[in-house]
Amino acid sequence: MRDRPPNTGRPPERTAPVTARVQYAIVPVPRLSLDTVARRSGLHPDLIRRFVALGLVDADRDASGGLAFGPTAPAELARVQRLRTGLCLNYASLGLVLDLLDRISLLEAALRRAGTRSDTPPWT
Q1: Which is one Pfam family of this protein (predicted)?
Q2: What does the domain layout of the chain look like in residue ranges?
Q3: pTM, rounded to two decimals
Q4: From residue 95, how far is each of 10, 77, 80, 103, 114 by CA, in Å?
Q5: pLDDT for 48-100, tens place per residue?
């Protein structure tokens, strides 16, 4: 005999179905290979692979199984390197700093759209 949950008089809670989000590109987005990104950024391919493993740079897999990067990957890698050398951060903490900087950019853009200025002096 199987154990049943107690009857509370309410229907059992249902979780929302998991849906996959599909995006279709109107214009094909050029993808950069690992070698191209390494050449353009001046970094060793192994270091770039480490950044991908840490989640600091986004990459997909191409048909042959190699890493494929978006066109902004060299600029993202340059940003990671600037933060690493300028703030003396380790690679694990760089992910947090990058997330916070992206969040600040989104909030400032929302303020600009709302017509509010973020450079007003604080009340203190």
Answers
A1: MerR_2
A2: 32-114
A3: 0.65
A4: 43, 12, 9, 12, 29
A5: 999 999 999 999 998 888 999 999 999 999 999 999 989 888 888 999 999 99
